[in-house]
Amino acid sequence: MKRNWLATALLFALPLGTMAQEDPLYLMEAGGALGLVTYLGDFNAGIFSGAQPMGGLVMRRVLNPYMHLRLAAFTGQIKGSSKDVATYYPAFAASPYSFNHRLTNVDVAYEYNFWPYGTGRDYRGAQPLTPYVAGGLGLTHVSGGEKNVVAANIFLGLGVKYKVAQRLNLALQWGVHFATTDKIDGVADPYAVKSVGLFKNKDGYSTLELSLTYSFMAKCRTCNKDD
Question: What CA–CA distance (Å, rounded) separates 53 from 76?
Fold first, then answer.
């Protein structure tokens, strides 16, 4: 009787094990992001001062359990004023300067996970929670001032990812974009002393964002083996 019970249990467990092994690996993610964007420049008193809402889109290409390639775009407002900083600017002593501009950013970045990200069905030893670092290049567009500004930027960030379900991914990320221009706030070199160097005395902005992405594009498990 005991042997019959054991044989029946194995018979039902075999198809379940086969289904788990045949669960697909998803190579792409796409979704949205909400968060805050903060202007960093001559007219900002702190790294989180004057943060404004932002929203955007995120897409990832899963290269391997440790490496993801991310394409992201977002837009939001940035604000600042010479009244909010302790620095004395002679040109704005009598009439303080303030701005409220629309900023749009597009960037491509590599994300390195500290340990394999996914579920055990995706990769051997994969974990549903992992911290990561990111770095890449982007393009900045600012409107709302006297002239539109377009400039390149370098992006550095860090965050944490959590796999909510087999196809749902949650990520919280903080990053800084170092722009190649000092005109994001509409004023270049407020001391009237021209700066020299690619990133010396240039503007920038930071982002704190929460994104939710959906995995798709299943990989053929019998074509290549990652184990």
Answer: 6
